[in-house]
Amino acid sequence: MGVPLVQRRLLVVDPCDDCHGLLPGLRTAGWDVDSCALQSVGERSCDVGLLRLQPYHLERPEAVKELISRSGTEWIAVLSQDVLRLQNVGDFVCEWFFDFHTLPFDVARVQVTLGRAFGMARLRGKGHTPVDEGHELLGDSRPIRELRKLLSKLAPTESPVLIRGDSGTGKELVAKTLHRQSQRHAKPFVAINCGAIPEHLIQSELFGHEKGAFTGAHQRKVGRIEAAHGGTLFLDEIGDLPMELQANLLRFLQEKQVERVGGSQPIPVDVRVLAATHVDLEAAVAKGSFREDLYYRLNVLQVVTAPLRDRHGDVAMLANHFSRFYSQETGRRPRSFSEDALVAMGQHLWPGNVRELANRVRRGLVLAEGRQIEAADLGLVGEQAISPPMATLEDYKHRAERQALCDVLNRHSDNLSVAARVLGISRPTFYRLLHKHQIR
């Protein structure tokens, strides 16, 4: 007796009488069928969804768009003849649904469509779990797995953490993860970008001021440090903090007290301090632009975020996440990526890291004319056509070898045995090449 190799979960939303007649046959065909109302979809998971489209869905489409965006899978619309006659129903269904069926059902055709939708969902890495936009550290590459493991160790402590890495690698997301997993998670998380506040305002922003402390101080202001009492204070771009403020911050770290500008009463503050920088603080200390004693106060524990070029296996997963995340903002259905787009993303060096990837996908959703996002929509066409400077034969071999590794990791990061087999090499050789090219 044949048994389905993979469990297939179907969620039927707002089922009609015709749907109830369809479900027994689908269960016999191997589908695990569940049903619920639209407002309860967030509590369920599925591989494919079936939604009976009603006139009020078209009048207020935001709920359906959110459902499709957050579920991260393919949806089939069920349409009555009355709904088919409504204005703009065709554009809405084409934009947001994988396919549609009119009532009454053709059972054989429904099963074929569900099978195709299931295959497409799996091909795109979708299904089973609704998109969790609150989980910031997405990815399954070795660097991101090691990072999550490290954060789970550091989060329960009270020690300061210095987060280092290139711009766009998610240093603030690391800080939020440390806060969320700490004992302070129910208290405030307060972030301040030390490089984005004018120098003449940063003292007041950090420490607050009393009424009348200076011209324009019409009322008392609680500073960011005081506002974080009981929780976590995140100081982004700490390397840009002026020297005078560095001395004040050091005093706070030593005494656990702040004094508002224009005030004379010390105020006890209990916070955990996290700091982040993309600059070389050791060089800044040697140059005299950053206090050595403050550096050692902040650098008790350290986290280093990996650039996206070292996380090739995460590019496709992150791109699909951003496609779903920004779909409502752009008013368009989440789209997958064409083969050319995947190749282009695999070859791009991502100097702007994850932030650049998010912005390119955002752009691609707006510009895409078909059901998939193309390389041109991402602004990645023509990059590979630019000839690199002439080099030695060994340089060309080295470059080609690294590119082959990056390309195969972009498709098979979840199974390195398959990746090695695709390249026609043994797994030990594959690991040796990864180490040679410093690809983690």
Describe what this molecule looks like in 3D.
The chain is an alpha/beta fold and 440 residues long. It folds into four domains: 8-123, Response regulator (Rossmann fold, 3-Layer(aba) Sandwich); 142-304, P-loop containing nucleotide triphosphate hydrolases (Rossmann fold), CATH 3.40.50.300; 308-385, Helicase, Ruva Protein, domain 3 (Orthogonal Bundle); 387-440, Arc Repressor Mutant, subunit A (Orthogonal Bundle). 45% of the residues lie in helices and 14% in strands. The protein has helices at 17-28, 55-59, 62-71, 81-84, 89-96, 107-123, 142-154, 171-180, 199-207, 224-227, 243-255, 281-287, 292-298, 315-325, 327-330, 339-347, 353-367, 393-412, 416-423, 427-436, and strands at residues 8-13, 31-36, 48-52, 74-79, 99-102, 161-164, 189-193, 208-209, 221-222, 232-236, 257-258, 267-268, 272-277, 301-304, 336-337, 372-373. The protein has a five-stranded parallel sheet with strand order 2-1-3-4-5, with helices on both faces. Helix 14 crosses helix 17. The longest helix is centred in the C-terminal third of the chain and has 20 residues, at 393-412.
Question: β content, as a range?
Answer: 5-15%
Which percent range fits the helix content?
A: 40-55%
- Please identify which CATH superfamily of the largest domain we are dealing with: P-loop containing nucleotide triphosphate hydrolases
Low-confidence stretches: 1-5, 127-135
Work out the helix count: 20
